[in-house]
Amino acid sequence: MKRHWSTIKVALALGLPNIARAVGYRAGVRLGINKVRRLHADVPEGPFFVGTKLSPVDVPPVSGWGNEAMWFGRWPVKTQDAPPDWFTNPMTGTRVPDPGRPWWQILDFDPAVGDIKCIWEASRFDWVLAFAQRARQGSVEELARLNVWLTDWIRQNAPYVGPNWKCGQEASIRVMHLSCAAVMLGQIHDAQPALRALVALHLQRIEPTVQYAMAQDNNHGTSEAAALFIGGTWLAMFGDARAARWAATGRKWLENRAVRLIGLQGTFSQYSANYHRLMLDTFSWVAVWQRLVGGPPLSTAWHEKALAAARWLYAMTQPSTGDVPNVGANDGARLLPLTDAPYRDYRPSVHLAMALFGNQQAYASCAPAQAMLAWLDVPEAAELAPPPGVLQADDGGFTVIRNAQAMALLRYPRFRFRPSQADALHVDLWIAGKSHLRDAGTFSYNTEPRWLGYFGGTQSHNTVQFDGRDQMPRLSRFLFGSWLKTDSVEPVTGIDPVTTAAAYRDHQGAHHHRSLRLHGNRLQIRDRIDGFNDRAVLRWRLAPGDWGLKSNSVDGSFVAVSADGGQRLRVSADIPIARCELVEGWESLYYLEKTATPVLELEVVRSGTLISEYEW
C-alpha cells in the first residue's frame, strides 16, 4: 500500500499533463496512430558540403577522429579513413541484430544490443565537426572524407530505420552539429541540396514525437526544441513549406523550456552538472545561430534564464582545471566538442555562455576557451567576470561556498523535478582545483541492478545512510519515490569561516541536519541524526591513494591520514561509535568507467551528533 501511495504522489509531482503526453506517445507509436510510424523520405545524394571560401581560423582544429576517437570522452576507439560500422559497439564488438528494422521495433534496453548509447555515440556526428574544422583550415582530404562519411551514414541508416533513428534527441544533436559545420564552412545561405534534405528528414523525425520529449522535463526537450528552431529557420531560407511550422514549434518550446526548467538561480531540472552543460551548450548554439541568421530575437526571459544557467555552471567550475563536482547523472554527453579540452574541462562551455549571455570573459588565459569562441566567430567580451564565489541556488538545492583555495558544495533536496540520485546532504570538497571529498558519479544506465543501485543510491555519496536503505525508494530504473523535502536551510554567512546548513526528514521518519564551516585550511561538518531504527552510517569518499586510519583511545575519535600526511580527516561523535573503518568503494568519472576509491565509514546505533574535520 505504501508503495502504491508513493507511486501516486510521484505521478502527481511529475504532472498529469506530462504523464498524458508520455502515455499518449507510447500508445500512438504502438498502435500506429502517431504519424512518426508513417514517415518516409528519400535518401539524399551528396555532396553535402563543398570547399569553403573562408580563410582559416587562427586556432587548431580538434585532433580527434583522425586515427582515434574517444567514446564518452574517455574510451579510445581506432578510426580509419573509411566510415565505421554504424551498428557495432566498439566497446564490446557486438553488433545490433537486424538493424534494418523500423526504429520503433527496437527495445529501449534490448539485451542483444547492450548499451545502445555505445551505438549512438558515432552517430552524434562529432566527426562532422572535426572534419569540417580541418576542411576550414584547407584540407581537401578532410572535406572529401566528410562527404564520404555522410553519404555512407545516410545509406546505412536509411530514414527512420534502425537504432540510430530511435531517439529524437539523437536526431537533434545531429542537426545541431550539421548546422555548426555549415557555419564553420560558411555554407548557411548556400547550403547544398543534399544537406538541406538531410536536415529536413531529421526534422520530420523530431516533430511527431516532440510532445514526448517535453514530457520528460529534461535535456530531450531543450535539444529537440533547438533542432526544430535551427533547422526550421535554416530551411525557411530556401522556401521549404514546412520550415515556418518547424521554426515556430522550436521557438515556442525553447521559450517554454527556459522558463519551466531553469530556476531563478540557474539550476536546471536534471540536478546534474553534465546535463546542465549539455543544456547550456544547446542554448549557446541557439544564440550563435540567431545572431547569424537574424529574425525576431528570443525573449528577454529566455536570455535571462540562459544567463542564470551560465552563472550557475561558472560557480561550479574550477578555474584552474575546468573540472566540476561529479554531481547528478552523467551519460558522457557533450555538445560542440570544438577543442581538445578534456571531457571534464567545462571552461570552453562556460566561457562561450558567459560571452553570449553575460557579455563577460569567464577565463582570461584559457586557450581552449578562447578557441571555442574563435571557431564560432563570437567576439571576446571586454569585461572580465569576477572570480566565482558563493552560489545559493535554492531553486534546486545547491550551495557552493569558498574560502581561499577551497570550495565546498552542499547538496540538499529541492525537487520540483524528478531526482536521479539519492544524494541528499552530500558534500564535495575541492582544494586548489582538485576534488578531495567526492561524488561517485553514474557509471552506466544499462548495467546490473547492483551497480544501478550503488551509483544512484545513498551509499555512493558523502552523507548519512539510515538503516541500510536509500533515502528514497527506487520505483524504476530512472525514478525514485517519496521525494525528500528540505525542512530547513541556513543561508551562507561569514567570511572565515564561511558557514551554511540544511536538514531533511525522510518518509520513514529519519532526520538529518548537516552544518558546514569552511576555514582557510579545514572543513568542519556537524551531523545531527535521529529517527532511525537500527543504525546510521556516515561515509566520506576520499581521493584515490594510500590512506591510513588511527584511533584515539582518549577521546574515541578516528583519524584518516593520506600517505604524504598532507590530508587528514578526523571523525568523532557524542555517542559511542560502533564501527569506523576504511573500505573499498567505487567511483565513475566517465560513462562506463568505474574505479576503486577509499571510503571512510563511521557507524552508530543511537541518535546523536557526528563531527568530521577535514584538514589540509
Automatic annotation (TrEMBL):
Cleavable signal peptide: 1-22
Keyword line: Lyase, Periplasm, Signal
Domain of life assignment: Bacteria
Key word Transmembrane helix present: no
Subcellular localization, as worded in the UniProt entry: Periplasm
Limits of the Heparinase II/III-like C-terminal domain: 386-552
SUPFAM superfamilies documented for this protein: Chondroitin AC/alginate lyase (SSF48230)
Entry annotated with the keyword Lyase: yes
Protein name as it appears in the record: Heparinase II/III-like C-terminal domain-containing protein
Organism whose genome encodes this protein: Ralstonia flaminis
